[in-house]
Amino acid sequence: MTGYDPRGKANRALLVGVSEYDNTAPPDGVPGDLPAVKHNLNRLAEALRHGGVFAEREITVCRSPDQGTFDQELWKAANEADGVLLLYFAGHGAIPNAGDELFLQMRNARVVAGGHAVFPGAVLFSLAQAMLTASSARRIVVVLDCCFAGNAAWVRQETPDKRRLLLMSVQPNHRIDAGDPDTPTPFTAELVKLLEAGGDVSFRALVDDLRARMSAAGHRTVRGDAWEPESRAEPGMDVLLAVGAGGTGSPPAPDLAPGPDPGPWARDPDPGRARQVGAVLVGWLSGMGAAWRTLIRRRHDSEARKGRGSDGSPGVQAGDTGDENQTRRHPRRTRRLVAGVVMLVLVVSALGIGAYRHLVLTGGPSSCAPALELRVLTDPDLEPTVRAAADAYLTSEANTTGDGCRRSGITVYSAGAADAVTALRKQTRAWQEPHEADTNPQRDVGPQPDVWIPASPADAARAVAGQDTDAVAELEADQTPFAYSPVVLAVPQGIAVDELNDRTGPPLTRMIDNLRARTAGAAVRRPDPEFTDTGLLATIALYGTPGAAGAPDPRRAEDRVAQSGPPAPTAAELLCALPDDDAVDNRTAALVPEFLLKSGVGCDSARRTPRMAQYPSDVPGLEPVYVRVRWQGADRDGTDRDREAEAFREWLTGEGGRVAFARDGFRAATGDRALLDATEVAKGVLRAPSPLTESAGRDAMEASLEEYRGANGPGRVLFLLDSSGSMAGQWEGPSGGPGLLKQSLGGLGDRDEYAVWTVSDAGEDTYDALLSFGPHSRKDAERAIDREAQVRDAEADPLGALRAALDAMEVRDTDDERPGLIVFVTDDEDADRFTGDGFGSLLDIARARGLPVAMVSLQGGGCDAGKPDARISEASGGRCLDADDDLGAALHDEVARTGTGET
Q1: Cα separation, 737 vs 386, whole angstroms
Q2: pLDDT of residue 251
Q3: Which of 57, 59, 132, 434 could pair with 440 in a Cys bridge, judged by C-beta atoms 3.0 to 4.6 Å apart?
């Protein structure tokens, strides 16, 4: 046990509680004030004062600070501590999507509704963590009491800080209740009781006792699951937080003797060292890709992970430590971003945080000018590795001047692979200066990149070959990629083959057929071919050469990877989703990049089944390549930008980048494609599989993507729009019922047919046909919706309308085999009609018909387990969406899977 008794050192405890918020009203307010947090601060401060570790002057209570005040207080505490540094936060927590990083919302927090999950006035946890890392403290303890606190554990550090001990009030992707406004929150109440119980209290003992007390009390999360505090700390790492009755004069605990030096984690307090730490920190804060990942990343499928996704995104503000019913319902487009917010963030990172280093760390003037910021766009599956490499570059000698200043900062972000190619090929002018609401790469992809790192050279070739003649972006791709990772069939160990000849050599379709032949119920899943190149490269092998003898029909080929609901967006999310059901995990193979079997994924792996890699002979691998992107009209700093982009390219494609990609399990891009790190080979990976297929071709990727988009179409969609009186407050604007429906029409093409019904009891039937079945131009349909759809002074009969919709679709399905979908947009005001035998009969019919029903609830929590919407979608094999999701983007994508339009 590496214990530490901090008594006698300069300890600091910063207790931050946000009980009052400036912005609580729609459309951009947080869910409400949190009066219980006031009691948290009072009780915890008192417990620490009497705990014998922190003196009165060493405890700072920060009540409802704005973002700037929080930053200043955290810097002050970090600079003053050399023993133990404790940061406690209670307030609203928010995440853009399930699995994303945590935002701590300060007094001035807002939610940018309808944008890309932007939270002005909130502190990204990775930034707070970076500030803590600059401290000289020998132990850093962080305690978070907020919704989604467990997501803080997913922040990846290039060099893990072994001093840090993290205590989170709840597991990832869960909201929690603040409890009685006249008492502390449930978690902090138990925390204080343990600190005041007497005797020596160490971090690890506190964690164990907290878990036991929360379990014994039967506390539940908003979702209804057991409320389970979590912790993260290096094995054996501990620190004393309170002592027994003897106070500061009592002897230290036996295994927490004062004095042991944490060695490599100690900090040199002299000004020179502080200046170096400051320069490194500035690099982290302004360039760290993790800091901006959740601001510019499209996560269109959080609900695909049942049990994690439905509560996991506060688009509207899922970050609520208070009553779930207070949640504001602001549907948002998680893949869309307000460009001004991004640019403001970049300016603050380059200038404002540099001022902290200037004023706080050095204590005087600094000769470091603001560093030039490079924007790096990459494939979603590559993002974690590219971000880690960029973080390493920021603090490297290659990016440091002779006087210790950094040369450049780097923002790493990702977007759907197909979206990135389309934007660079056909939309560069709109990217530079958007004019149309439907075409806005700044919103849909992110800022204009200086560097693009696609997962295949074929992506660059596709973008260059198809560029518009008036393109305003010039692409200059390297001739060769700088790393390689084969796409493997990761088979659960219990059903995997042992013979080497079976693991390498056969084509993908034969491997899948053999797996199913030897294992009843075996399945194969693949990530979304439009969102990441991993899925598209696998699709090339599934479909074979178009037109060649023996090439399967794409619809039949898709049967080999068929699943209920949409595919996972990325390979990492696919591997995260499988362990939700042990039976599924144990019999389902996954098409993923080989490197993930070493680098792992950012979700709980306690129940994940071990997997063996099989290497299909016809699936091209991931081959990241460096592409310089130059924009017309960006001449003012063009020379400097070229110089810094080239410096990053040389480092990334040289030894520096090689180390970062080796750590994550990549292979050499040329020769025999040996593992870059041959000393630590991941379990289930072959050291030298042979043969490894050649690179993907531009035409093969283009053809496979086109065939995938048409494999399930043309389709048939029936839209049901709740038009009862209660919808009046959910009608106007892009996030209202008609607005969401119109946005989704982009997923339908000229050959698809669809109808629109309005649902109310105003007429003789449970619905009125606003548009009859047939192909409709988008403009004509939107005009009809604007002209004829209106709120009725009546209730709705959703049960009867859904029965009628299922019957209508069955009649039309007898004429052809089109894929079909029912979409029901509702505020759930009349959900009480989903009861009794009638509801049971509806669920039975939905199961029997096998026609997906997408329930779209404009209420937060409408898709929680056991709710009618969730039960209907589950029974039909459809998807349930509510205000905690990115409704606009998610519904568009759901419709596009059935139709043949935009994707």
Answers
A1: 39
A2: 41
A3: 434
